[in-house]
Design brief:
364 residues, alpha/beta, Rossmann fold, Dihydrodipicolinate Reductase, domain 2, 9-stranded mixed sheet, 6-stranded parallel sheet, 11 helices
Length: 364
């Protein structure tokens, strides 16, 4: 995994199987985004067996098989869907095509695990909600900035233990490096990527809901802009939004494509969590100017203050929980309502966003 390449962010953890060999068989379909490697890493480390891979691009399949030599190349998507041994299909399709792939997976009686953002329209979300309700199957989402970052996992554990009291605000910053020459054409077409608040903003809204323990929220402000990429007129290179949750907590986030080349990682992702009895700061991917290793957690509460570097010490429990949820039909990893609500709010934020033109001030 390159620290400079967020598109191919694929953390590797320690194997912690939650099932017997061959008990939970998975497949990977549609390799349009490099996050598929993080998704499959997490599942196989938790005990899943990767049996199939399919993508119409043979070069992507060949690269995948180098990483997972135990998998087999399927001749078609249908070959994967017809295999009764496959319990779950993981996919990282073009964002606008993720919902359609999910519907095909669910139609064949399998659970679905998609890269974020899971939808680009509210209509797609509504169809998925109805299909999940009618089938009882799972439409799981890889919100990696909370689920696949050890400091973010540990923050959730501390909050659950009451380390900072009741959470009253979460502020997230999600800068990313663009590396435009490495991006496919669809990445710059809003119809296909959904907009910046829908895309990388989905991470931020999901963690605001998770850390505050909220079930819903109201957007109070959202804004997008293309400040410095006129050659890509449909790209939004900056976005921000504020919201108030149904339990009274506040949330704000900023996302952008302005990570400078001199930074030692693809983005200085940070999260600030304020509670009634303390606060937490996460420096997810780098401790700027001090340590190139990620997953630094800073905590201050009534008992004292701590800097806790937790890389390699916490693990990624979501993946094992997801496998057990699929086997036992439970909802320990993430509820379906939570996954869909985060998606809904980012779609609303994008739909209602004020657009700031380059070189102008928004009208009062």
């Amino acid at each position: 995994m390159s620290a400079n390449d967020g598109m191919n962010y694929a953390p590797q953890g320690k194997p912690r199987p939650v099932c017997s060999p061959g008990e939970f068989v998975i497949a990977a379909v549609s390799l349009d985004h490099g996050h598929i490697y993080g998704m499959v890493n997490g599942l196989t480390e938790a005990g899943a067996q990767i049996k199939w891979v399919y993508d119409p691009d043979p070069a992507k399949v060949a690269q995948f098989l180098k990483t997972y030599p135990g998998a087999r190349a399927a001749a078609s998507e249908q070959e994967v869907l017809d295999d009764r041994d496959v319990r779950l299909v993981a996919g990282a399709a073009i964002t606008s095509k993720r919902a359609a792939l999910g519907m095909r997976v669910l139609e064949h009686g399998k659970d679905y695990f998609t890269d974020k953002a899971p939808f680009t329209t509210l209509a797609q979300l509504e169809v998925a909600r109805k299909r999940v309700e009618s089938t009882g199957l799972k439409y799981a989402v890889y919100y990696s900035e909370r689920l696949h970052v050890e400091s973010a996992v540990f923050a959730g554990q501390l909050i659950d233990e009451g380390a900072i009291g009741r959470v009253i605000q979460v502020m997230g910053m999600g800068p990313h490096r663009l590396r435009a020459s490495s991006r496919p054409a669809w990445f710059f077409e809003k119809e296909h990527y959904g907009g910046i608040l829908c895309d990388i903003g989905s991470h931020q809204i999901e963690q605001i809901l998770a850390y505050t323990g909220a079930h819903d929220a109201k957007l109070t402000m959202s804004r997008v802009a293309n400040y410095d990429h006129p050659e890509f007129p449909e790209l939004e290179d900056f976005g921000e939004a504020s919201l108030v949750t149904d339990n009274g907590s506040g949330g704000y986030f900023r996302v952008d494509w302005f990570t400078p080349d001199g930074l030692g990682t693809w983005g200085d992702g940070r999260t600030f969590i304020i509670g009634t009895k303390g606060f937490i700061e996460l420096r997810k991917y780098i401790d700027l100017g001090r340590d190139t290793e990620g997953s630094h957690l800073y905590l201050a509460n009534q008992e004292g203050e701590w800097h806790l570097p937790v890389q390699g010490k916490v693990g990624y429990p979501f993946f094992g929980q997801l496998i057990l949820d699929c086997l036992n039909r439970t909802e320990e990893a993430m509820t379906q309502a939570h996954a869909f609500k985060a998606a809904e709010l980012c779609l609303i934020a994008e739909r209602d966003a004020e657009v700031t033109e380059r070189g102008t001030m928004p009208q009062a």
